[in-house]
Amino acid sequence: KLVVVVLQLLALAVGLGLAAVVAGDEAAASIIVTEADCHSWGFDPSSLSCDTCGLLVGTPLSQFESECLRCCQRFRPDPVVNPDAKSSGFVGRYKLAVLRYDPESLGSYEEVANFLNEDKNDVIKTKGGKAFLLEKVQNDNYYSMGGFAALFGGMGIAPPTIHFYKTTSKTPGEADEEVSLRGFKREDITDMLMTMLPSS
Questions:
Q1: Cα(114)–Cα(186) distance, rounded to whole angstroms?
Q2: Beta 132-136 vs 161-165: how paired, if at all?
Q3: Which helix (H) or strand (E) holds 200?
Q4: Among 2, 73, 119, 154, which lies 20 to 30 A Cα-Cα from 85?
């Protein structure tokens, strides 16, 4: 199974070449990277566990370890790579989470819509209304395309994003961690919030 994971990482990184290495070096000075940055390096942040990044060490792909660690989901251990890993270090890590989304583009993110309809109240009840907030935003990409992007599975539409803060105050652009919800399952969103936020 480990060999399969390494081969998957190899497939992701093939074709990046020198240009991607330069891009990775330039991004090294940035604390938060975007989903587009991760995709340009060949990583899918919605499903990448940080445990997997360790497999790059000592291989020809070790040059991409830094980029991998910037794009991975630290709260989600990989039971194949690290069966003894526990998520206890992430319990209550942040004081506040803000889910920012465009209601008009939720048709392209059914799992997020299902979370909002079915699970968000359970999270608020458990974690408290001050620890988990919802913020509606207007996605300029969606409106500039007249909403037709929804016909193509959300291509070009910025996905809903959860912004985590280590304090109870929020400032746009200054989150301690940002998690794109593209590709997330409804239960993954709930599990992440239940793990990362303190109980009320």
A1: 7
A2: unpaired
A3: none
A4: 119
pLDDT digits (tens, 9 = 90+) for 11-56: 444 333 323 333 333 333 334 677 788 888 888 887 788 888 888 8
Entry pTM: 0.59
To the nearest 10 degrees (0 to 180), the angle between helices 110-118 and 186-196 is: 60
d(CA 196, CA 74): 10
Q: With contact defined as beta carbons under 8 Å apart, do 190 and 122 qualify?
A: yes
For 157, the token pair is 């539409």
How far from the centroid of its chain's Cα atoms is residue 148's Cα? 25
Q: What is the pLDDT of residues 87-96, one digit of tens each?
A: 555 667 899 9
Distance of alpha carbon 187 from alpha carbon 42, whole angstroms: 25
Alpha-carbon span 23 to 65, nearest angstrom: 14
